[in-house]
Amino acid sequence: MTDSRQGPLLVLRILSALILLAIGGIHLFLIFDGVGGLLGTMFVLNGIAGIVLAVAILVTRGALLRIVTILSLLFVIASLAAILLALTVGLFGITEVWSFTLVPETVIIEAIGVVVLAITSGLAFRRPRAVGSAA
Description:
Elements lengths: L2 H30 L4 H23 L2 H27 L14 H23 L10
Helix pairs in contact: 1-2, 1-4, 2-3, 3-4
Keywords: Membrane, Transmembrane, Transmembrane helix
Protein name: Phage holin family protein
Organism: Leifsonia sp. NPDC080035
């Protein structure tokens, strides 16, 4: 990887990890706030996945980093889609309302996460140019 790309990619990886930690943290917070049942189980899994992906995006390199960024992007898209479905038509028999704890904040963070992780993934997949080649 070239030095000119290392800085922006590092910043985006850190920002991506913070977003993933925020998503995971929100879901784990909601468990302690009293969410239980099927929704609680899904929130625990979401929280663990967010934390694991955040760590992975910081410690991986090369081809493994590319895989982790794509998995993280898919995770955030799925999480955002799940809350939007729950807010509109319901998901697994669960309906959500905008006034529930942290729903607006979660939608905003996850929407930003989709954009940030898409950029991070794109930058991770860019190949360095060969020295002396024309642009």
